[in-house]
Amino acid sequence: MHTLKSPFAARLSPCGGILMHSPRTRLTAALKSRGVSRREFVQFCSSMVATLALPPRYLGAVVKALTQASRPVLVWLEFQDCAGNTESMLRSSNPPVAEFVLDLLSWEYHETLMAGAGKQAEDALERVVREHAGEYIAVVEGAIPTADGGVYCTIGGKAALDIAKHVCSKAAANIAVGACAWDGGLVRSNPNPTGALGLHEAVPGLKNLINLGGCPHNPANTAAVLVHYLTFHDLPALDEYNRPLFAYGDIIHDQCERRAHYDAGRFVEEWGDEGHRKGYCLYKMGCKGPEATYNCPTVRWNDGTSWPVKSGHGCIACASHRFWDTKSPFYKRLPSVPGFGVDVTADEIGWVATAAVGAAMVAQVAGNMVRDKLRPKKTAEETKEPPESRGA
Amino acid sequence: MKKTQRRHGQETEWKRPAHGQVRVYVWEWPVRFAHWIIFATIVSLSITGYYMHSPFVVPHGRTAYVMGTMRFVHLLSGFAFLGAVLIRIVWMFIGNRWSHWDQFIPVTRKRLKDIAETGKYYGFMVWSPTPHIGHNALAGASYAVMYGLALVEILTGLALYSRILGNRVVSFFFGWLPHLVDIQWLREIHFLVMFVFWMFFIHHLYTAILVSIEEENGVMESIFSGYKFVPEHELRKALAEENDEDAEVLREARPAAEQSSQSRA
């Protein structure tokens, strides 16, 4: 059905960089040279308008802006990462989001994709910072280690922290893609041996910073942010974590296609049971949908094919703040209570404690019965009321 | 003494209020109202809340709406609980002496000493409990803790609700909490505190029965009627300690035996 060609295959030009066109080439020209029809282009624009939750009348504005925009320069920095966000970008095939994103911008530097290496590659980055200062877009993938002078991630002899400070502070806009670049992600999760931080903490005070959390980021959202930037010359509405509201504003649970089963009370009790085969709600399997916000259920993955809950696995809230620490265990509804074993649930603690109080009360009853029997008569006489209060 | 009187007296004797007791209006209607609303809502909040944590009902039919109903009842009960707790807290400042806030938070040396005395009774170190007209200091302090936990439940509950609602007003007031404590821990706290309420319920019921038997003051009935039956000298002593000998309450308190004979007539 889909051709699994990578849109990047054609870009690995023998002459060094990933550049096919100069930054001055307009998008339409770039697309035309790659044989993308206007129909496909408008389809892409309408999907972006939908992702941004803009009214349909904005389609014209988006098409016009993208047609006329000269492609801004983009550098993609990778630090403590697994290249998962890059992979997520590459794996979209049809409609070719990555294709458009790559042609929308002039990608000057991307370690995983570019053919150039070593000094030539680092020179390309340096040239962008020098020649396009205040104009280029910097995308950051991966956490930035700060422990021991940042020695745990160095590129070309320079610490990630220094590169980020150098490149991001001169960018027109910074986009942190994935959980690691946003809040440190897996790298920063307890015990965080490298002192990893997200971009906004490692390099405070960056202007025009936008966080696209998620493990990985959804390329549709990243493309939509870029389209928004090119169309309106501004970032979309952001939440308190600098995440775009169109993607991170709604709770997954409220958009979930299994929600009706939740409301009805039909739940998967164990993996592979009848309820699981029937697509019941994964709440009891530890699904974090009620806690998480993301547009995963509507934008989905692999060209809108599916998303975790649709494929039968609970949400792990990968777009939530520091989710590795805060949303685990992923297969239990509530965190383990500190001071007890990891297998001890809050239910067990509560029931045992309640039973203990009940037992203590039974012991008290027994004790009181004994005390009642043993209570000396003398004590009763001592507590006798004064005679004047008697009568009535 | 009363106990021996009961044991050895005629049946007709001990059915009447004990000798020398006066009837004191201890729990005013807002106290009783709040008490029973809090009780009823804790029951319904516990049942629906436990279901929401770990669904235990197997739904039948295609139109089942078990979780939806549970959540709806939980929200309604939660707001009723909030209202009742607020009424009771307001009444701590405008109510009578036995519903006043200083009955809960021990601020005087006497109340602090009373905690130890009541503790001695529960620890089987003395034969009989110290008589009280309102709450004893230990009970009052435990209620203060429970009101604190009720506020914890209200706050975590509203923070969780603000997440669902996405309402700007509610989010403004309570949306800051999930940033301070992660939402999963809010749920954990909200859930675990429920068990403390259960423990308190067991203990509360037990001590109410115990005191009712030991002091013979009608404490169990008092949460329905508002009246307790206490020996007149105890009431005078309690009022004298507050330098309030001529209090209205003493004038109103009539010998219980007289009242019950009137009602019989």
Structure description:
- The complex is a heterodimer of chains A (about 400) and B (about 260).
- With about 400 residues, chain A is of the alpha/beta class.
- Chain A folds into two domains: about 240 residues, Rossmann fold (3-Layer(aba) Sandwich); about 80 residues, Irregular (Cytochrome-c3 Hydrogenase, Chain A, domain 2).
- Chain A is built from 19 helices and nine strands.
- In chain A, the strands form three sheets. Chain A has a five-stranded parallel sheet, sandwiched between helices. A two-stranded antiparallel ribbon of chain A has the order 4-8. In chain A, strands 5-6 form a two-stranded antiparallel sheet.
- Chain B is mostly helical and about 260 residues long.
- Chain B has a two-stranded antiparallel ribbon.
- In chain B, helix 6 packs across helix 7.
- The longest helix of chain B has about 35 residues.
- The N terminus of chain B is likely disordered.
- Classes of the chains: A alpha/beta (about 400), B mainly alpha (about 260).
- At the A-B interface, helix 14, helix 18 and helix 19 of A face helix 4, helix 9, helix 11 and helix 13 of B.
